[in-house]
């Protein structure tokens, strides 16, 4: 029995390590119950509460935050009584254990007790089953459980499966409640009102390089996409017609656009699936011809690698609430992101300031952060008002482009269904940073977007030296001169030192 437990524990830990890209943490908080949120929404003190999406369903199982149990001393937590000996496990660990079960066993276990009913109907469990077993070949059917059941039991009536949830009395769990809350919340107005990014329209390339790229400073550029056919053409009908049965990268699977839009219309969840495809222009060349790189970002030294260059451009499509949690762009590159449809909220922190609630490993290979973007806003956005260095924030709308310098932390959330194109690039201003990154001792873990992580540095450097002889040495010399100049004393400091020396000498 002991060996069985040890084996299960090792499998759970192994499963945790295999999670893609980022480790996640969830901050435990005491949150108002759903009824209190709705009551607050109707009160005159709405600025203190949260607003729920009009399409958000009530919690299907009646889960309440743990704080409500503290205010109800005559109640017991049915979560514990229904789990039996497993009650000593955290909610996260219970769900990790259940993650090893298939759909049939989850369904059977849900009949054991009310507590198991709640846990076994946790939507992310069924989402994982759909994505792992059906890959991208599914038609979203109102909920992940209904989608799974309809795929394996087409004759089973699943129309009311997602709306016939059993209400469980006195079930308290911060983890499960907050998962529902994060999926159901609207962005608060105060999360959107701060706009402190520099905006520019019609500036020259020289001005962009001098005032922004050289200084590694973000800027939002207006009016630089006017010649893009995508601005006029890229709506749902056009994209579906042009792409047909082509599969696009959506999380761990590939989906047709028509299926993805069906999902994004119906899903209300904490972390909506995000379409993020690096090969869209190769898959559908017409899409690549509907846009061109803005004039400010034409120089891209990675392009000399040809087909061996790392992934560098993506089409991005997602519903409101989808996006990317805090990260630094790959391979120490800079980036630009152009919105074609919709709007995006951006929060950016400079390289020397890690965002609150974000915990990178010392080598930068892993980043622990809140499970969802909304959760970060709920628990950590307020702390940014106390930062010595305030983050740079903006809402980027259709027709606008944001420049994201290398090394900057950034979070992006779609405020409505949005379509965008982004590209990462290497210019002369950033070449030395990229080369230093590629030759780090743990580069094989850090480099992304290419199969040959080990040799990318040697390939890139040698190709640069052949294509642009002397460029690396010249840039290195200029960098050293710049450092030396910064170390020189100012005029006032030199005068002060001279006076101090003279005073000591006369004394």
UniProtKB/TrEMBL annotation:
Q: Give residue ranges for domain JmjC.
A: 282-442
- Molecular function, one GO term: cis-regulatory region sequence-specific DNA binding
- Gene Ontology CC entries for this record: nucleus
The protein depicted here goes by the name JmjC domain-containing protein
Source domain of life is: Eukaryota
UniProtKB keywords = Iron, Metal-binding, Nucleus, Oxidoreductase
Instruction: Tell me where in or outside the cell this protein is found.
Output: Nucleus
Q: Where is this region: Disordered?
A: 36-61
Q: What family does the entry list? A: Belongs to the JARID1 histone demethylase family.
SUPFAM superfamilies in the record, alphabetically?
Clavaminate synthase-like (SSF51197), F-box domain (SSF81383)
**Which InterPro entries does this one have?**
Cupin_8, F-box-like_dom_sf, F-box_dom, JmjC_dom, JMJD6_ArgDemeth/LysHydrox
Gene3D superfamilies on file: 1.20.1280.50, Cupin
């Amino acid at each position: 029995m002991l060996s069985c437990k040890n084996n299960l524990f090792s499998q759970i830990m192994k499963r945790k390590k295999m999670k893609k890209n980022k480790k996640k943490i969830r901050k435990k908080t005491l949150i108002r119950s759903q009824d209190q949120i709705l009551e607050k929404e109707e009160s005159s003190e709405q600025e203190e509460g949260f607003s729920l999406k009009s399409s958000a369903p009530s919690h299907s199982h009646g889960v309440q935050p743990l704080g409500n149990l503290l205010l109800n001393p005559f109640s017991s937590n049915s979560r514990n009584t229904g789990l039996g000996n497993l009650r000593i496990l955290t909610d996260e660990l219970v769900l990790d254990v259940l993650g090893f079960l298939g759909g049939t066993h989850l369904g059977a276990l849900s009949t054991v007790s009310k507590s198991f009913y709640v846990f076994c109907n946790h939507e992310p469990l069924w989402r994982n089953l759909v994505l792992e077993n059906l890959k991208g070949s599914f038609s979203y059917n109102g909920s992940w459980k209904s989608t799974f059941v309809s795929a394996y039991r087409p004759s089973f009536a699943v129309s009311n499966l997602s709306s016939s949830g059993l209400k469980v009395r006195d079930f308290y769990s911060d983890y499960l409640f907050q998962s529902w809350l994060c999926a159901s919340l609207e962005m608060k107005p105060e999360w959107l009102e701060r706009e402190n990014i520099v905006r520019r329209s019609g500036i020259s390339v020289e001005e962009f390089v001098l005032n922004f790229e050289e200084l590694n400073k973000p800027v939002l550029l207006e009016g630089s996409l006017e010649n893009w056919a995508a601005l006029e053409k890229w709506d749902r009908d056009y994209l579906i017609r042009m792409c047909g049965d082509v599969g696009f990268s959506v999380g761990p699977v590939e989906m047709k656009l028509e299926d993805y839009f069906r999902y994004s219309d119906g899903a209300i969840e904490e972390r909506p699936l995000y379409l993020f495809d690096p090969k869209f222009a190769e898959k559908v060349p017409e899409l690549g011809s509907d846009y061109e790189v803005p004039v400010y970002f034409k120089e891209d030294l990675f392009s000399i690698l040809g087909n061996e260059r790392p992934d560098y451009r993506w089409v991005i499509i997602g519903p409101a609430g989808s996006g990317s949690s805090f990260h630094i762009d790959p391979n120490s590159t800079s980036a630009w992101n152009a919105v074609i449809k919709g709007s995006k909220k951006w929060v950016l922190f400079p390289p020397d300031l890690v965002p609150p609630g974000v915990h990178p490993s010392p080598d930068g290979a892993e980043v622990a952060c809140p499970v969802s973007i909304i959760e970060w806003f709920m628990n950590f956005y307020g702390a940014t008002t106390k930062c010595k260095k305030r983050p740079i924030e903006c809402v980027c709308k259709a027709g606008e482009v944001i420049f994201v310098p290398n090394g900057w932390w950034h979070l992006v959330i779609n405020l409505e269904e949005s379509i965008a194109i982004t590209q990462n690039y290497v210019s002369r201003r950033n070449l030395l940073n990229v080369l230093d990154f590629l030759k780090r001792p743990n580069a094989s873990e850090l480099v992304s977007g290419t199969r040959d992580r080990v040799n990318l540095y040697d390939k890139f450097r040698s190709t640069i030296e052949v294509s642009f002889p002397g460029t690396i040495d010249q840039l290195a010399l200029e960098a050293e001169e710049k450092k030396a100049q910064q170390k020189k004393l100012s005029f006032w400091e030199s005068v002060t030192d001279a006076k101090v020396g003279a005073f000591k000498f006369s004394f």
